[in-house]
Amino acid sequence: MQDDEVIIDLAASSGAKVDDLVQVWRALRVRHPVTKQLMTDRFVIGKLRLYRVGDNLSKAVMEGDFDAPPKAGDVVMLKQPKTAIAVTPVEGADPKDQPGWDDKASASAGEEDTPDASDDAAASEPAVAPPNDEAHQVASLFESLRGQSVVRRIRAYEAWIREHPDSPYAKVMWEEAAVLRQLVDLELSKRARKARQAQRRVSETRPRFVAPEEALPNQPFSFGIRLEAGTEAAVFHARPEGKAGYATLAMKPAGDGYFRVTVPATQVQPPGLEYFVEQVSGKGQSKAVLGSAEHPRAVEVRDVTEPEPSQPPLATIAVWSDYADYNRMRGDDVTWQTEGYFGMRFGDTGIRALRSGFGVYRGVGGSLEELDELELSARKVGLTYGYLEGEFGITDFIGVAARPIIGLKDGGITGGGQAFLRLGSDRRTNLMLGGEFLGGVGLRGVAQLELEVIEDWPLMVRSEVTNQPAGTSSNRTTVRPDRDDFSPDNTSVEVNDIGVRGIAQVGYRIADAFVVALRGSYQGRTINHSGPGFGGALSYTW
Description:
The chain is mostly beta strands and about 550 residues long. The protein is built from six helices and 25 strands.
């Protein structure tokens, strides 16, 4: 559709010509309510008359009334004529009765040419009488067009002119065809104006309305609609989807047949808003023009989640200390570890955080046999270390953290490392699974659950499986007895047996950025080789 014209792709290449009528068909697809079978059909909704025909496209106007205005996608069909125009002489006609007959020319055509002195003058004459057969053709053409339409006459004249371009009748017939074309154009223009007026009348009798797709909850919502001329008032009925009764709102005139209304926020609730519109005539009669009480229109009411604002990098400084006794407070199997760090957190995915820290590890230990049965002295273990830790968020729920460790012990430089898998955000409840190796100290496997379930009270539960502090064996030349009255020969040099720890920590946010925490633990290697522990932590984030 272009302005008031209808553009179709049925053109000269398909046999279409000016003034042809084409039918407009519209497809219909419905599903049977009982059999559920998809049914298709198509129906004629009107006719178009062609008034411009090109090689590939044609312009047309509406002819008569339409069941519905034509639209893009409709199908047009052209029925070709069964016969073509044939121009034949009229049998039995007297040549003298034909238009253009010239007695002088006829006579001279029957006489023998005799050269004389006047031939040169005759040769210079500008006009030559047409031959008899050409006059017969013109007369026969006029006779065959008796009672035919103007368009058919134009086509016949132009066809004759193409076949006889040098005929003296060609100019007159061309002028005649041009005048007839002007008459056709004038008539088609009148029809086009009538078609535009008819289409305008059709459009003015139907509501102009574009249905909204969605609305925001608890927000006023505006509707507008154009109704047919003569509508005195309009009423808008609305209700939240699933409710029984409608709220009735009077629509306000907005000029040129338009009416508008604003639905109160209380009616705009998820999951949707149902509505229908009634128009009121000058006689006070109302009718539904858009939806109905039984079958209302609906617009989805969708709750839009506000995106979380981007967080700037967070800086944290923290320190914690932990003491654990494995042997009934006898002092021969204990650990004491203090660690502090400074870190930056960047986001949930990708490089989540970077931390740099230090630690001091001190302890005494030995094998159960040497400590409990042989009653040898425990040996001293110590490590002072530093580390750089990075955490990478694979998703906002899954992350991995790793740190390389380098430190000093009695025998010189040593190393170690730590790696964890984190399930959940480090800023909310999460579970960490991983392990640690400290050179000269031993191994430790860790499962740690951090809980953010009580506001301002962060909780932590942790379990460990470890052979620390004496997780590696020693020798008599380097071993350090824990007791001054024992020599290296009376000191344990074997590896600690495997032990387990259970730790519980309770924190409190004194301010949004400052948290203090206390922890308690119980650990042991056997039921008779066990003891309590305690510790604390401080952290500040900004």
